[in-house]
Automatic annotation (TrEMBL):
Taxonomic lineage of the native organism: Bacteria, Pseudomonadati, Pseudomonadota, Alphaproteobacteria, Hyphomicrobiales
Chain ranges of the ABC-type glycine betaine transport system substrate-binding domain: 32-317
GO cellular component, one term: ATP-binding cassette (ABC) transporter complex
Gene3D superfamilies linked: Glycine betaine-binding periplasmic protein, domain 2 (3.40.190.100), Periplasmic binding protein-like II (3.40.190.10)
Protein name: ABC transporter substrate-binding protein
Annotated keywords: Signal
Superkingdom of source: Bacteria
Length: 338
């Protein structure tokens, strides 16, 4: 396990002796903090942002440790480690997590993605601008001519979620629920996430119509501006119907339903909440929008950047976002370190 320490090389005279003393006090208060470095891009870059800010801004001995949703949250609930899960998609573990929070063993510091994780059916913004009447899935399905299928342009295409993913079942059931086949559409399987991304890129290059499943935050939505369609005017998420049919493979009678919001929180241990002081307060304020994340992920893909590279780029280029999360003193220290 690689230990990631804050840089200690600071130009002579940059800070006063009093500032050094304050930094030492912060380090003593915060101490060592372990941060789960999840194995997907948005979580990885957020873990690095936290590592840099906690180390440089608040004097913590911040260490990244490997992580993934289920094993990390299970370890936090059972063993009290690691201290921080920066981007925890909690829907699948909501009941035991809520129990741990009620017992005071864990805490929800902030909603790391302010809008939550977003899923749904999307169309390119240029097509939405040219056809402002298309607001819902049904609106789009009324115009198969705007979304030509790759194998048969006389039909429309709805692009499915990648093969083997849970959302493939959902998209297939929604295709059936909206009677898309009867409205002149084919359900197109792209085989993989790369294939799905490629279909969006190809449509954009040709300025053609595209309709299909996607999610945020993702790099592709940072590179290609898309508009998410409503599942139906006034339609709200019906969990009972979702569990009965929408999420069940080969369900015979699926009905239209709104996608559930994927709640994404920063989860911390009680030990760190009690010991972290101002460092913990930073995590309670640290939240960002999907559009911000999308653009950062697109930059990372275009530049083959690591999570560390992405974090440093974000901190250098968007102080208007992250300075709201930290104290003025911490902001100056982070800028000096960069």
């Amino acid at each position: 396990m690689q230990r990631l320490l804050a840089s200690t090389v600071i130009a002579a005279g940059l800070f006063t002796a009093g500032a050094f003393a304050a930094g030492g006090a912060a380090a003593e208060e915060c101490g060592t903090v372990t941060i789960a470095n999840m194995n997907w891009q948005s979580a990885e870059v957020l873990a690095w942002i936290d590592q840099i800010i906690l180390s440089e801004g608040y004097g913590c001995d911040a260490e990244l440790v490997p992580g993934d949703t289920t094993p990390t949250l299970t370890s936090m609930m059972e063993k009290g480690a690691p201290d921080v899960a920066p981007e925890a998609w909690i829907n699948a573990a909501r009941e035991p997590l809520d129990k741990a929070v009620a017992e005071g063993r864990l805490h929800y510091a902030s909603e790391s993605l302010s809008e939550g994780g977003v899923e749904g059916f999307w169309i390119p913004k240029y097509l939405a601008d040219a056809n402002p009447e298309i607001k819902t899935v049904d609106d789009a399905l009324a115009h198969p001519e705007l979304f030509p299928a790759p194998e048969d342009p006389s039909k429309g295409a709805v692009y499915n979620c990648p093969a083997g993913w849970g959302c493939q079942i959902l998209t297939t059931n929604f295709f059936k629920a909206y009677n898309a086949a009867d409205k002149g559409f084919d359900l197109v399987d792209t085989g993989s996430a790369a294939g799905l991304d490629g279909s969006i890129a190809k449509a954009y290059e040709r300025e053609q119509g595209w309709l299909g499943y996607y999610w945020a935050p993702t790099a592709i939505l940072g590179k290609y501006e898309m508009v998410r369609l409503s599942q139906g005017e006034g339609l709200e998420h019906d969990k009972a119907e979702w569990d009965r049919c929408n999420a069940v493979a080969d369900c015979a009678d699926p009905k239209p339903n709104a996608w559930s919001k994927s709640e994404v929180y920063t989860v911390v241990t009680d030990r760190f909440k009690q010991a972290g002081g101002p460092a913990y307060e930073y995590l309670t304020r640290r939240t960002w929008e999907n559009a911000t994340v999308n653009k950062l992920l697109a930059w990372m893909v275009d530049n083959q950047a690591t999570g560390e590279d992405g974090a440093k780029h974000f901190l250098a280029e968007q102080p208007d976002v992250w300075e709201k999360w930290v104290s003025p003193e911490a902001a100056e220290k982070v800028k000096a370190a960069l």
